[in-house]
Structure to design on (458 residues):
């Protein structure tokens, strides 16, 4: 109770931001002509939730202590989102098997972002290890959770993923809508391949990539929407594992062979010589996941108190957000607080079990996989038809919208961003360019691989 009282301001502001953001709801923009293409995109409530946090800090409504308190809440709040995505995968495993290798192979298109973004980050902007955090994915909620578990959000990698997250939230849907419109206008790609590429990211990014496809191919809209949803499903099922075991190691390897650290230090030295003042280099306790695993950790009791606090409050905020969201959504039936609360209790099963297994494995072995890995695996298994209570898990998954679960995460992220504004400013144009290159590399890489596979099969 004393801990909750200590963090009351964080939770109160997060609640206010969630209610205001969901009340504003989705704001569609377009279509409008730009460079010969019809541009359309949507502004989602989560953008407002993040913006409110930054504005509150700039207006000094939130102090630095509150900002620091919110940082670890982000990774914990994402557990609800991971659980929902995982439970939704179980009933569709057969569909995924029947979808063909095109859906699986296009996941390797995610390497396109690393191959595009890391060299530019190192050779053009001389970024530090922030380049790794910004280049391995589209930097959405799952990516934050992964980096938070592997390095910590106060690390350079954490600064990179948070910087990319800001850029993606503010510019992502606009950029994705413009990029998709231009690529469609080229007439090079099979629209099915573009639909696959559209699904290789978060739900909001998928919608942004799909909107131009609906305008270009209205007669094939249902087919393309189904293809994108399947691609998004496979990305949700494999994205965390692909990032952890393939993309992040590739980014680290590229950063090393390009002498990223040396270029970064030389940039700092030049800056210091030019200004005549020493440039402070912030020291971080952990530079690799292995080093992070060896750092002193809070007691298990303290860990569970923090988890329980954040899961309860973020869950309540999501329930309120889901109620408002479904009430405002034209095609959705209203999901009341009691129904949402029951659904969240169901989703709590993989969250709690996943955390318990994570604690047990890390305590008894040297294995240090993120907790969200266990949460996702358990969620997938519990949602497989034929498993005990599988139907209840499936119904619970359907009761909760994806975006309302993301809004509390953005509310905490917005509050936390106050301490990162200086670092974000220092990353400047570089973080914007790297983030947009990551988006471009993922979309085009996935679409190219899918297009080649589909062309070989035709």
């Amino acid at each position: 109770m004393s801990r909750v009282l200590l963090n009351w301001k964080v939770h109160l502001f997060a609640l206010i931001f969630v209610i205001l953001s969901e009340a504003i709801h989705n704001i569609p923009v377009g279509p409008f002509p730009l460079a010969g293409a019809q541009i359309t995109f949507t502004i989602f409530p989560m953008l407002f939730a993040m913006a409110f946090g930054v504005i509150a800090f700039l207006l000094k409504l939130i102090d630095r202590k509150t900002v620091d308190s919110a940082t670890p809440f982000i990774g914990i709040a994402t557990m609800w989102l991971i659980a929902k995505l995982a439970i939704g995968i179980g009933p569709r495993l057969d569909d995924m098997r029947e979808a063909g290798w095109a859906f699986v192979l296009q996941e390797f298109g995610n390497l396109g972002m690393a191959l595009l973004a890391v060299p530019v980050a190192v050779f053009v902007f001389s970024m530090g290890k922030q380049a790794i955090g910004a280049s391995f994915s589209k930097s959405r909620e799952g990516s934050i959770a992964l980096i938070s578990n592997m390095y910590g959000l106060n690390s350079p990698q954490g600064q990179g993923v948070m910087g990319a997250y800001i850029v993606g939230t503010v510019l992502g849907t606009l950029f994705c809508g413009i990029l998709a419109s231009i690529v469609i206008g080229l007439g090079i790609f099979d629209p099915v391949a573009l639909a696959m590429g559209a699904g290789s990211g978060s739900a909001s990014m998928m919608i942004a990539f799909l909107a131009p496809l609906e305008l270009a191919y209205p007669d094939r809209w249902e087919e393309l929407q189904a293809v994108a949803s399947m691609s998004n499903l496979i990305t949700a099922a494999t994205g965390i594992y692909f990032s952890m075991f393939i993309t992040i190691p590739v980014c680290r390897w590229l950063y090393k062979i390009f002498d990223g650290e040396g270029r970064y230090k030389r940039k700092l030295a030049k800056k210091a010589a030019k200004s005549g003042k020493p440039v402070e280099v912030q020291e971080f306790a952990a530079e690799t996941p292995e080093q992070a695993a060896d750092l002193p950790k809070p007691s298990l009791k303290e860990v569970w108190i923090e988890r329980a606090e954040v899961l309860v409050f973020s869950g309540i905020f999501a329930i309120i957000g889901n109620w408002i969201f479904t009430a405002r959504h034209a095609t959705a039936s209203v999901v009341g607080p009691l129904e949402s609360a029951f659904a969240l209790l169901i989703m709590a099963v993989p969250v709690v079990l996943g955390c318990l297994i994570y604690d047990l494995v890390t305590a008894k072995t040297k294995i240090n996989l993120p907790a969200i890995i266990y949460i996702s695996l358990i969620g997938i298994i519990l949602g497989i038809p034929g498993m005990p209570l599988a139907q209840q898990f499936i119904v619970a998954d359907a009761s909760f919208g994806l975006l309302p679960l993301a809004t509390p995460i953005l509310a905490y992220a917005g509050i936390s961003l106050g301490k990162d504004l200086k670092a974000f400013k220092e990353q400047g144009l570089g973080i914007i360019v790297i983030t947009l290159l990551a988006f471009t590399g993922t979309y085009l890489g996935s679409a190219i691989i899918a297009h080649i596979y589909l062309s070989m099969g035709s």
In short: The chain has one domain: 2-22+29-271+293-457. The first helix runs from residue 2 to 6. The mean pLDDT is 81.
